[in-house]
Amino acid sequence: MKKTDVIIIGGGPAGIEAAYDLARNDVQVFLFEKEDELFGHMNIAATLFPNFQDASEIRSLLLQKTKHNNIKIFKNTGVAKVHKDDKDWHVQTEKGEEYTAKAVLLASGFKTFDAKYKEELGYGIYKGVITSVEFEEMYKEGKILTPYEKKPQRIAFLNCVGSRDEKVGNHYCSRVCCINAVKLSIEAKKLLPDVEAYCFYMDIRMSGQFYEELYRKSQEDYNVNYIRGRISEVSPTIDNRLQIKCEDTLSQTPLKMSVDLLVLMIGIEASEGTSMIAKQVGINGEYSFAKSLSLHSADNKTKNEGFFLAGTCKRPLTMPETMADARAAALEIGYYLKGVPE
Amino acid sequence: MKDLGFSISKSRTIDLDKADLSVYQKIIDKVPSAKLCLMCGACTATCSARNHTDFNFRKIHLLFRRGQFDGLADELDKCMLCGKCRLVCNRGVNTRAIVYNMRIILDNLNYKRIK
């Protein structure tokens, strides 16, 4: 069977959530995932902000949803080409198979910024410089160690790596990293109560329910320190630590300190799949993200009839936003399949 | 050695490796709400002393937090402890108590007044 109602590209939270809502409405769904595992970036997370919910709970809930009879999952199935004839959408996989559907939902998500581009921060040069993804993986394993297998005494988190940065061509804010930095600093303190945690920021952006409270909690209950200033230089010390330099902009004084770990809060960029497919169907927007028909009134539709968008293929989103967006997309596709007029 | 009139100027950089951060912990012990300060500057904006002097509570609090005590004893003398700053603080920080305790701690540390 190579014909179905809806093809969903991307088996992350957005793709699965939309697939399930469609399936519950008797829509036949094919879901393509390029990796051999579902859930996309949700696989990295140990806990989710702002309530520290165990991410494995979310993964098993999502897994349950994929078991619906109307959903057929294709793992290890990257999409090579998407085009439309006068009636149907055709999706060609990297293996060369072609599938046909009445509608396509792009849920191909994001990729994280490659911190090597910010050479002055020393990622890939000095061992103690790691990304937020690597830090979360360490926390998931239950041990946060220096590259020399020691207990860290001081950890610094640096926000806006690959975001709000003209030098790397990303003018936008990735929106989740501030909240994630607060979450990671609390995780660090939970695992290592004696560690000193420092967050370096340009602005702390905590918009969203319970995020500001999380920020407050990090100060009140976990003694996380915040320094307004961007680290612009990292160098190794003689005792295998890292010296970081920034301006403490609130006291208008240069500041330096040594740390065991420098965690770079890497931003969100359009994934390769997102930018490639968006380009193919002519909806490539700013910074290679996919462009919806109207930000305010038709955010799941595109200028192509029958081609829909959900989740972070459009822009950086938090988890709750992604899930809500996926459900909205499923509703929109439902209307389209039934031919409900505007 | 002959004095040639040159000297090495003191570093203007805050070195957190050398700063004594345990002093600020004493403030936190006395005034736990100190941890919540966001450095927004509402206190400084409403300050009565600020109207006539260059007293800046926000900045003094921050330098104290970073373990930079030079000159702070003089600065703190400018505060009249009126407590207006406490009324405007959106995080409920007991700013007045912070000034009071910073004075006591600096006195105990024998931080000399310059003037």
Sequence-ordered SSE layout with sheet pairings:
The complex is a heterodimer of chains A (342) and B (115).
Chain A: E1 3-9, H1 13-24, E2 29-32, E3 47-48, E4 53-54, H2 55-66, E5 71-74, E6 79-84, E7 89-93, E8 98-106, E9 110-112, E10 129-131, H3 132-141, E11 154-161, H4 177-191, E12 196-201, H5 211-220, E13 225-228, E14 233-236, E15 242-248, E16 253-259, E17 261-266, E18 268-270, H6 272-280, E19 307-309, H7 319-338
Parallel strand pairs in A: 1-2, 1-8, 2-5, 8-19, 10-17, 11-12, 11-17, 12-13
Antiparallel strand pairs in A: 3-4, 6-7, 7-8, 9-18, 14-15, 15-16
Chain B: E1 14-15, H1 22-30, H2 42-46, H3 57-65, H4 72-76, H5 84-88, H6 95-108
Report on this model:
The complex is a heterodimer of chains A (342) and B (115). Chain A folds into two domains: 3-109 and 271-338, FAD/NAD(P)-binding domain; 115-266, FAD/NAD(P)-binding domain, CATH 3.50.50. Chain A has seven helices and 19 strands. Chain A has helices at residues 13-24, 55-66, 132-141, 177-191, 211-220, 272-280, 319-338, and strands at 3-9, 29-32, 47-48, 53-54, 71-74, 79-84, 89-93, 98-106, 110-112, 129-131, 154-161, 196-201, 225-228, 233-236, 242-248, 253-259, 261-266, 268-270, 307-309. In chain A, strands 1, 2, 5, 6, 7, 8 and 19 form a seven-stranded mixed sheet that branches. Chain A has a five-stranded parallel sheet with strand order 10-17-11-12-13. In chain A, strands 14-15-16 form a three-stranded antiparallel sheet, with no helix packed on it. Chain A starts with a strand and ends with a helix. Chain B has one domain (22-108). The model of chain B has no long low-confidence stretch (mean pLDDT 92). The interface between A and B is medium-sized, with 14 and 17 residues. Strand 16 (253-259) of chain A pairs parallel with strand 1 of chain B, so a sheet runs across the interface.
